[in-house]
Amino acid sequence: MTTTATLAFPEGFAWGAATAAHQVEGNTVNNDWWAREHTPGSGIAEPSGDACDSYHRYREDMALLADAGLNAYRFSLEWSRIEPEEGFVSRAAIDHYRRMVAACHEFGLTPMVTMLHFTVPRWMDARGGWRHPDAVDRFARFTEFSLPIVADGVDWVCTINEPNIVSMIHGRRETDLVASGLPAPDEAISEVMRQAHVRSRQVLGSAPALRTGWSVATQAFHAEPGCEQQTRDYGYPREDFFLDAARGDDWVGVQAYTRTFIGPDGPRPIPEGTETTLTGWEYFPPALGIGVRNAWARTGGVPVFVTENGIATADDQRRIDYTRGALTGLHQAMSDGVDVLGYLHWSALDNYEWGSYRPTFGLIAWDRQTFARHPKNSLGWLGRVARANALGPADERVGTP
Ligand code: BGC
């Protein structure tokens, strides 16, 4: 998709980037993923280790985003730091995340806080994770524990990141989440996710200014000729169930990367010769516009927040091309009437991609030895789009920021 005109976005549109605790903080030693990374025979390519050390360097990360021109930052709380043992709340961890919220404001970034981005404390995992009868209560209580972080200075809270992916991977021990495809969701877990979301929103309702929702991995299912019904049947438990559950929420998060073709026997492999990214996914920028339209239609008009969109590539110009294509499709959906509140790029930094550091999604690279940050051209480019609140013509070339 190319643009010849400048595409303006509405006043107040949020432009930012997103991260998740386990993928950037480093040493999240007390969660289920860390345990798995250190289980002999798990087959995980490499452990998360120090990650980007953003637990200590978050101010530097935020400053780079803000200096580039972005105005929003989405990050997640690490439950295993806040409640390291069942019922024990770490005041120091609460203070840490409060400092992160304060730093966002200091740098002019609107914070969006995700309560749960895949990882659970070891104690929660040991009792069966989301399968334990008290799981929903435990998540509601964790939300309560976290109220001091979000009750003051935060407008946007995402209860659960990609509950549909959680439901597909829960209890499974795939070694590389990003490359594992989409196993059938566990419908019992899907329902637990829905209830956990509802309960968490109720707790967050005690801070009336908060605008709460959850974020769904949209997958742009494409039906092969004659496979429309199979596609609906395949897509419902993997995407639409979770969008339907967002009806009545303040907003719904869309996280779009690629598309999936559905044939008579389910998902089809990517045809040979198709451009793929470092996660093995098809390069397909229109996925965002499609995901946003589907979310809007299924929820009956709940405002959409793009909470993730991006590409794993070592070619930063390709990242810019992809993002331009995605934003063009997004703008088209908005012109057609979809209410979109903002765009948060995945990801602020190259990060731990659930098993490996190889797929690089970041606007910022960093040195594995020194942790020194190296902003990429794509950060400067997205920052300029944010400052202009508009996407310029496609032939506008980008130099070093
Ligand atoms: C997740 C991120 C992940 C990204 C790219 C989303 O599924 O929320 O944690 O890194 O996609 O794989």
From TrEMBL:
GO terms for cellular component: cytosol. InterPro entries: GH, Glyco_hydro_1. GO terms for biological process: carbohydrate catabolic process. One of its GO terms (molecular function) is beta-glucosidase activity. Keywords: Glycosidase, Hydrolase. It comes from the Bacteria. Belongs to the glycosyl hydrolase 1 family. This is Glycoside hydrolase family 1. It comes from Nakamurella multipartita (strain ATCC 700099 / DSM 44233 / CIP 104796 / JCM 9543 / NBRC 105858 / Y-104). The lineage of its organism: Bacteria, Bacillati, Actinomycetota, Actinomycetes, Nakamurellales.
